[in-house]
Each structure stands twice: as C-alpha cells, then as structure tokens.
Amino acid sequence: MEQTDILSFSKDELSAAIAEMGEKSFRAKQIYEWLHIKKVTDFSQMSNISAQFREELSRKFCVKSLKIKKRLVSGIDNTVKYLYELPDGQAVESVLMEYKHGNSLCISSQVGCKMGCRFCASTIAGWVRNLEPSEMLLQIYETERDSGRHVDSIVMMGIGEPLDNFDNVVKFLEILNSGGEGMSLRHLSLSTCGVVDKIYRLAELKLGVTLSISLHAATDEKRSAIMPINNRFGLQELMKACDDYFKSTGRRISFEYSLIEGVNDTDDSADELIKLIGRRNCHINLIPINEIKERDFKKSRFVERFQKRLTDAGLNATVRRTLGADINAACGQLRRDSAAEDKPAY
Ligand code: SAH
After folding, report:
1. Which site from 196, 209, 251, 299 is most exposed, i.e. has the minimal number of CB atoms within 10 Å?
2. Residue 90's closest CA among 162, 189, 160, 175?
3. How many domains does one find in the chain?
C-alpha cells in the first residue's frame, strides 16, 4: 500500500485522519506541531507519541523530503540558489535572498510550466506536473534547515504558474498560515501571468496574499506576442480582476514589467503603461530581463529612462535590484542545465 503524504494535510484533514485511527484530537495537534513547527523529518523523532502509534503512523503515512541537488552561494550578497530534487527524481529551484527587512525565499509551484511566456526558461520544455502542498512547504523547511537562516517572506515566482495549480497552492497557503512559520500571508507574494478566473477565486478566499501580476506589455498586441495567456484573458479583463482583488482584499497590486530591448522598452511603451495603469493605487516593479540562451531577447538599455517616464507621470515604479549576480541563472535555467547534464554524454 502506498503511504499518504502527511505533510500535505491541512489541520482539519490531519484531525480527521487521526480520529479515524481512534486517537484523541490532541494527538493530531501534537503531530501537526512536530511536522510544521519542529519540522521533523521522520515519525521516530516524535518523542511524545507512543512507539506503537508511531509505528502505526509510519505504516499509513510518509513524511516527504527534498534532496539538495545543487547549491550555489553568491560571494557578493548572501543569495543562495537551490536546485531541489523531489521524491520522484524531478527537480525545482528555490532562491534565498537577503534584504534589509529580512530573508525572502522565492519558491516554485510546478515542475515546468504550460504558460509559454516567450522570454521564460521555465516553460521551454513544457509542463511535467504540479507540486504537492508538501513540496512547496519543504522548499521553505529545507532552506531554513540548510542555511540556518529564518525565512521572513515568500515570493511564488520560481518555476511554474501558481494559479494553474490552484487547489494545492491554496492548501499550501492555509498550512503556512496555521503552521509554525508565524507568517502572515501578507508576507507572501503570489505572482501570476494573469489567470483571470483564478484571481477572482483567490480574492474570494481573502487570504491576504499580495498579488503580483506579470504584465510586461500594456497593449493586447504587444502582450499577446510575448505571453500566450493574453489570448485567453485580455488586458481589460485582467485589469478588471486586479481591481476586484484590490477592492475585496485591500491589498495593493504589484505589476512586474521586465524590460526587453526593442520589444517593450520604448517611450511609447512607457506611455501605454501610464495609460493602462491610470490612477490605480499600485506598485510597478521594473526588471531588466534576464537573458536566456534559448531566446534572443536582449536586456534593455533604457531601464532608467523608462522608470523616469513613469515616475514623472506620477506612477510608483522602482527597478528591482539584481541579487546574486555571480550565480545568476534566469528562472528555470538551473533546472534546464541540470537536466542536460544528467543526459548520458554520447
Ligand atoms: N508564472 C508566474 C510566476 C513565475 S515567473 C508568473 O508568470 O508570474 C516569475 C516572474 O519572472 C514573472 O514575472 C515572469 O514573467 C518573470 N520572468 C520569467 N522569465 C524571465 C526572464 N528571463 N527575465 C526576467 N523576468 C522573467
């Protein structure tokens, strides 16, 4: 019999499973604490649970773990990039970054991605599978264990489209919120390329998550040329969903805009963005594009000029600081390179 992944259980699911085994409810609370506060990796470490019940638990359930396949440490700014091997041999990336306000961890939500954004390395080889809630939590737990640093905030900006793995992501958020991280979901940013129907569903849940929208172009024509999702949900629909999210959660939206030479970095593009944003209370994050070898998109030379045009028009726009420049690998690039290395060399 295959054992069930106990780390992916919400508090309520765990209570129900333990009750079904004929144990009192305080046992479920103890087990939840071992898993998500003390973060043990095996039932044998749960010292206040009887040996007999631990034995029963390990027959029914397993505690998943991740292996560090690669660890790149920046010599400049304490950024650490991890390539984690999942229990089935697949791999995903997480990046630990140090800011003035604390440590931030960028995590992955899927193995590969279906979204097809033209400039993104994560999507080139397509989508393999969704991550389980446990596999998202473990990126945090393992990074804290390995680095000895506490993760203060999380960005879901690694490999994958979080809203394309909606149910598992929501369960992950709920466990994070009720677990030991002591983390308000205000300190979590979920980044999406714009899966509009799921933005409405996320708003309804009122989890307080900060929403980041990968915008990258401000007209349907330009956006559809680099982001296929725009053919499904156009800009007008997307902006409406953002307004709804802001209205129902009170959380200000952050728009990501990666500047690509000759594609979206001209004065005209800036003016289109100014027009699209209008008087919305939001933040615009400008990112010099990370060049990837599979595509010929180039970094823009006009980042400051673009920013100035936006701020002169009264928009709140900042340029994202580059961290870990010496271990720089665009989103999904480490996994791609590693997959290539794993192939037999003949
Ligand atoms: N699927 C989600 C989250 C993962 S990508 C999303 O689309 O938001 C995280 C961010 O990195 C997104 O804003 C994405 O558009 C951006 N990105 C992907 N490849 C990039 C590259 N080569 N250079 C700069 N930003 C990139």
Report:
1. 299
2. 160
3. 2
